């Protein structure tokens, strides 16, 4: 157990970026594999996709390196690092944008760059925006790319450009463009032909792995949206029968309650090792149907909160589901009976949910697990905090700022690979402007480590 709240002295935070521009951290995997660098993008605001560069900063020296610069009118952002190599992956918007082909959720793709070979971006996902559609290629935008712990796959959320063009009438006889989950399998390049001037070859075989429907039946496990996913375990998780599920993603799925109202529940999708085999429907989709999951994909609902005091996973603060390193617990945010947002967990095998925190103030950010699986880092009370998962005790790592505008931003609170630091961002007034800058704070040792 961590020391009691009153005995923890807030640690000295250290600012590691200072340029007069925004610095945006993604919610996970912002540290290089060796913990020596932090990767970030330079969007001016989180809600404006106008960044031009992907950069990294050295923890030891403060030196900044630009590892990718967008060209031809494109913008880039939302970068995460490879867990084993010096590569990183990020979103790139349309190059040479036009009034009828500008940045949108359905018009963006993943790009991989190696920090030791800066500037040489490689397209992650192949795209076919018009027929003939190709297995292993997407038809829309991918977003928040995260490498699997073994570095062989990349997860993302997906929006379909082909279906978006058909409109949003659920009774029009075609699938709607609904947010879904996808996975790219590295080492399997996909080449596409013509059919659309924006078609793009890719370095991976990419598939949609979640399944949504236009109108979920009330009270069913059908969903209209899949998002905010996270890989389950460093090596997957143990099923109830003791066998191992090697690859799985936990995610937020929007269901329809028996009374007809939508809310979010925790879901999991178990993935086969081979993502290239067709299931019941075409991997590549059709002109009116979205790409279908591969053979062997299994989507399951884990939580059932329609009858509880606070229905559904919390949608604010925005957060991504994160599993413990051993894969045994999936953490999420949900309100308690008093309306306070708390940390909860559920097993990937289902069963009852467990309330971790019982704080009087709400958890206020996305969160990450420590590498040893004992703690979660997050923001609360305008401070970076740690919660000990076993006891639920929360301690404050940073002092509270005098002005709430100076407090830690809600989008990222990320443990370093060795568990000794947490990276976060907060707004800093500089000259005539205010810019988000990246900070780190040391993590105190647990009593057993002292």
Explained architecture:
- The protein is built from one helix and 29 strands.
- With 450 residues, the protein is mainly β.
- The strands form eight sheets. It has a four-stranded antiparallel β-sheet with strand order 1-29-28-27, with no helix packed on it. The protein has a four-stranded antiparallel β-sheet with strand order 5-6-7-8, with no helix packed on it. Strands 9-10-11-12 form a four-stranded antiparallel β-sheet.
- Strand 16 and strand 17 (262-271) form a beta hairpin.
- The longest helix is centred in the middle third of the chain and has 4 residues, at 161-164.
- It is globular and about 55 Å long.
Produce a short descriptive summary.
This protein is an all-beta fold and 450 residues long.
Query: Order of helices and strands, N to C?
Result: EEEEEEEEEEHEEEEEEEEEEEEEEEEEEE
What topology, given as strand order, has the largest sheet?
1-29-28-27
Q: For the report, how would you describe the main beta sheet?
A: 4 strands, antiparallel
Q: Give the CA-CA distance, first to last residue.
A: 12 Å
Shape: globular
The average pLDDT score comes to 94
Summing up helix and strand content along with how strands pair, one would put the structural category as mainly beta
**Beta-strand percent range:** 35-45%
What's the number of extended β-strand segments?
29
Helical content stands at under 10%
Please report the number of helical segments.
1
Unreliable sequence segments: 1-7
Radius of gyration: 21 Å
